[in-house]
Amino acid sequence: MKRILGVLPLTIILLVTTLLQGCAGHNHQSTENLLSAAGFNVVIATTPQQLKHLAHLPPYKMMRIQRNGKDRYVYADPAQKLIYVGGLFSYDRYRDMRLAKNVTEEDLQDAKFNAEIASGWNVWGPF
Known about the structure:
By secondary structure, this protein is an alpha+beta fold. The chain has helices spanning 2-38, 48-55, 88-100, 115-118, and strands at residues 41-44, 62-67, 70-77, 82-86. A four-stranded antiparallel beta sheet has the order 1-4-3-2.
């Protein structure tokens, strides 16, 4: 009996950790479903240059970049080797859908333009 009670806290910790990891994956999937529904385009990384650039992007965070004089919003999913790309209209729809679903706001300040990350976007071709 003492042995079971000694193992119980470790078992609970492992169970909670597993559940939290599952929730984190679900959160990314939920965000990506909203992005698709809001009109973001999926761009799959197919070249070595794109894969290299993708590896340097903050994963699962919305970024605002300027491309060809226009604001674009980009969300990187390195596990799936792709990015979601949308304009202001798609971004506004995504934000409204998030709020409507009562999804807690992540720091939308992540969408601020970051000059260091902005370089290298030409490897993705036109979008």
